[in-house]
TrEMBL record:
Protein name: ABC transporter ATP-binding protein
Family named by the database record: Belongs to the ABC transporter superfamily.
Pfam families membership: ABC_tran
Upper taxonomic lineage: Bacteria, Pseudomonadati, Pseudomonadota, Alphaproteobacteria, Rhodobacterales
PANTHER family (alphabetical): ENERGY-COUPLING FACTOR TRANSPORTER ATP-BINDING PROTEIN ECFA1, HEAVY METAL TRANSPORTER
Domain ABC transporter span(s) in chain numbering: 7-233
Keyword Acetylation: no
Organism: Thioclava litoralis
Signal peptide: none
Keywords of this entry: ATP-binding, Nucleotide-binding, Plasmid, Transport
GO molecular function: ATP binding
Entry-linked SUPFAM superfamilies: P-loop containing nucleoside triphosphate hydrolases
ATP-binding as UniProt keyword: yes
């Protein structure tokens, strides 16, 4: 089993468009499975982007095994993968082969080695026939699998999953969930579905840009569910953040 990376966030604050979106985020964790829950607009995706080094905080700090992923992009590229909710926001190349090759080439792999690694990854998922396929001919679920393969090829220590099942049917979702369970990498999984986080080592409940609760899934999720059920009884959508 791979060593779990240490994630340390200290008094982190982030402002976007003049509004404080994350504040007072302090964490020091070394867990294999970290879940993040919270209401719409609470700051989960923003936190995922900060953890991945895609956005630098305005105050405080973030370290992954002592590395600042926003400053040291090369180190971040080798250590962290992020799977977005919508694969169309992630995919940049017209064919599967090109999309899967890009990260490996960025990491410094040669052409022949890259082609071999891509072929092996496609075979691992019984998708050798996708190699030359235009991405535009794939469904959302198929595109999501391409994105996941691209991440796995780069062998990160940590994979951030930002609502990876949105728009996927229940069968694909079940298959992906089982696959995630088997991954040796540490996972940070953002979801609206607490069932996805059963058995997780740690869950953060983010509320209005702050950590409202932090602890084992067994202790945090029941309280979160109770809160959400109560909130769902109201008929006032004006509390939708934003
Ligand atoms: N680029 C941006 N510029 C300005 N405000 C932003 C930007 N991105 C997000 N926000 C605001 O930050 C807050 C948190 O958004 P975020 O997408 O992180 O929430 P979330 O918890 O992931 O929501 P959801 O569950 O609906 O996906 C929201 O109020 C949102 O409007």
């Amino acid at each position: 089993m791979a060593q779990c990376p240490r994630l340390t966030l200290t008094d982190l604050r982030l402002d976007l468009a003049g509004k404080t979106v994350l504040s007072d985020i302090t964490l020091d964790l070394q867990v294999r499975r970290l879940g993040i829950v919270g209401r719409n607009g609470s700051g989960k995706s923003t936190l995922a982007r900060v953890i991945s080094g895609l956005i630098a905080p305005d105050a405080g700090s973030l370290r992954l095994d002592g590395i600042d992923p926003a400053r040291d992009r090369h180190a971040a590229l080798n250590r962290i993968g992020i799977l977005f909710q919508n694969p169309d926001h992630q995919i940049i190349f017209p064919t599967v082969q090109e999309e899967l090759s890009f990260g490996l080439r960025q990491q410094g792999h040669g052409k022949t080695e890259t082609a071999e690694l891509v072929r092996a990854m496609l075979q691992r998922f019984s998708k050798a026939h996708w190699q030359e396929a235009p991405i535009s001919t794939l469904s959302q679920g198929q595109k999501q699998l391409v994105c996941l393969m691209a991440i796995l090829l780069m062998q990160p220590q940590l994979i951030v999953l930002d609502e990876p099942f949105s728009g996927l049917d229940l069968a694909i979702r079940g298959q992906l969930m089982r696959l995630f369970e088997t991954l040796p990498q540490a996972l940070v999984h953002i979801t609206h579905d607490p069932d996805c986080l059963a058995g997780y080592d740690h869950v953060l409940w983010v509320h209005e840009g702050r950590i409202h609760r932090s602890g084992h899934a067994k202790t945090v999720l029941p309280d979160y569910l109770a809160y959400m059920n109560q909130a769902g009884l109201g008929d006032d959508l004006s509390d939708l953040a934003g």
